[in-house]
Every structure is written in C-alpha cells, then in structure tokens.
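Colleagues,

Please find the record for the two-part complex below.
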Amino acid sequence: MSHTVWCPMDATATLDIPGGKAKLLRKQTRNLRLDSAIDTTKTPRRLFASSITRSVKTLRYSIVSLLSLYAATVYSYLYLCFTAFEIVFYGQYGFSSGEAGLATLCIGIGSVLGCVICGVAANAVSKNLTEKLGGDPKPKYRLPPMILGGLCTPIGLFWYGWSAQARVHWIVPIIATVFIGMGMVFIYVRLPCGISATFHQSHD
Amino acid sequence: MYLVDAYTVHAASVTAAITIFQCLLGALLSLAGPAMYDTLGLGWGNSLLGFISIVFFPVPFILWIYRERLRNAKLFQVEI
C-alpha cells in the first residue's frame, strides 16, 4: 500500500491500514475499533466467490452494459473482418492464402494510427476543455475522440462492403480497412479508460 | 469503510466485464459471419454492420450528458 494513512484519534474515519499493521496498532493503542480498510469479515472462499462474480454483477449497471455492448460489437467486427477477408481477397480477388493474410496488415496500420491520434487528441481535447470550462480535468473530457471512432467505423464498413461488392481494384477495400481499424481503436481503447476513471474518481 | 479499496476493485471488475463480453461476442459473431455474407452479399452484409455501429453512435453523447445521473440512480445501484 503506497498510501497508508491512519489517524488513531478519530475512530470513525476510513482507515486504510493493511491487516498486519492494524493488528499491531490495535495492540499498541488498545483501540479495538482500529480496523484495516482492506480487511473484510468474509472467509477466503466467500471473498473469492464474490470477487469472481462481481464483474458479472456490474453488468447490471446500465452504463456498464451499454458500454460493454458497444465495445463487444466493435470488437467482434475485427474478427468478422478476419473471416470476411478470406471470402473477399482469397475468393473474389484471387489472392493466394498468404497474400490474403497480408491484407490484415492494413487493419494493423489503422490501429497504430488510431492509437497515436487517440493519444494526442485525447490529451489535447481534455486540456482544451479543462481550460475552457474551468475546474479540474474530468474523465468525461477524454470522451470526444470516441465520437470520431463512432464515425470512422461505419464509414469504413460501408466503403469496404460496397467497394468489394462492386469488385473494384483491391486497394480500395484495403484502404477502407484502415478506417475500420482506426475506428475500433478509438472506441475500445477509450472505453475502459473512461469507465475505470468514472468508477475510481467518484468515491475518492 | 471499504469504499476506497472497494471502488478500485470495482474499476477492475468493470473492465473485466467489458472484456468477457467482448471476447464472447467476438467468438460468436465471427462464426455467424460467412452465413450472413452468403445471404446478404458483401455490400449489404457490411452495411448491416455499419448500421448497427451507427445505432451506437450516440453512446458518447449519452455518457457525457447522463453519466452522473445514470450512475447515481437507485435503480442501477447494485450491492456488491
């Protein structure tokens, strides 16, 4: 624990003391109400069971289920693309199986581009909004790049789908996959960051 | 009493929930993919995916506006 803080004078304060130290302090100060903040009354078995099921229980928060549905949808498009590449490039454009595999490179390029743009944009937007609206930087100020992802993904998908349908030159659908990769990164890199910041910030 | 630590764990659980959901859907949807492309063709098949992601487009806006309200609503508070 890097942030061990205790205050034996006030027994009602939230004490953040590891178990062993709490025991020692109870002995030293003879204050039986000193308790470690990470100590629970649960048995190890129950603690394990509740910890392992907690993530499923959090899906009952509407916000978590909505976000995970979004992340899951976008993430599944990635795997759907891998399946579809075989049909499109191997089947339709007559690539060899090795070349069809190389087609996935452009999703990779898109993802790297997305990571870079997302990192730079999120910081810039967050700083800008903090200055504009005043006060402390909030986790929601880092949300706007997600909007970009919401645009990039459908644009890439429509472009990729219809250019492959029209059997135009293979580079056209490949360029579209750069946008798909970029949009996916915009969405599911931003998402868990945003939500963990939300849950963390609210109670500390 | 346990709020600080409980909520740190909470953040991890939320991330885990998202990951579980992602992997499940990722595995299942790619199984359904070829059948979908057979039926709808490449153009409409991918357009369907595009339309679904357009449906999700307002999510960041919903989050921005209603986040505090959604999180504090009694209905969505779960005893963990």
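Residues 25 and 61 of chain B are 24 Å apart (CA to CA).

Comments are welcome before we finalize the supplementary table.
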